[in-house]
Amino acid sequence: MAKATNRRGFLKQAPAVAVAAAAAGPAPALAQAGAEKPAKKIHYANGKPPEKPPLFNSVVSYGNLVFIAGIGAHFEGDIKAHTTHVLDEMEKSLARAGSSMEKVLKVNVYLNDLKDYAAMNEAFLGRFGPEPGVRTTIAAAGGIPGNSLVEIDCIAYI
Fold this sequence. Notes:
This protein has 3 helices and 6 strands. With 158 residues, the protein is an alpha+beta fold.
């Protein structure tokens, strides 16, 4: 028979344990001398900010994470051509930020039409290395802006 535990007694001790932990100071990894706090950094395609504030930024890093905004393909073509173009642009953006396709943790794929799912997967397969990150794929209600058949964003580490 399993030993009974006193969860209520344990939970009553939690505030005292938290106070003791706080009094002990920061964790050793956080207390390193000279350790910088993470900062938000914008990665501009041409290396300099635009004259006017943009609606949003395409590539932003914070600490060791990089966030790539949705990239579409705004030219005539099929889903494979659009997917290939978007992934090529994503790869360039990741490289400018100091990352790579193999370091992508999360991908969101927005399809103009779910019927393109299989063909998109053909162009997508293998682009993120042997151990790709997680992915969510949806068909966007109302379509993708700019007549793109696909839009893709991601989060990666640097």
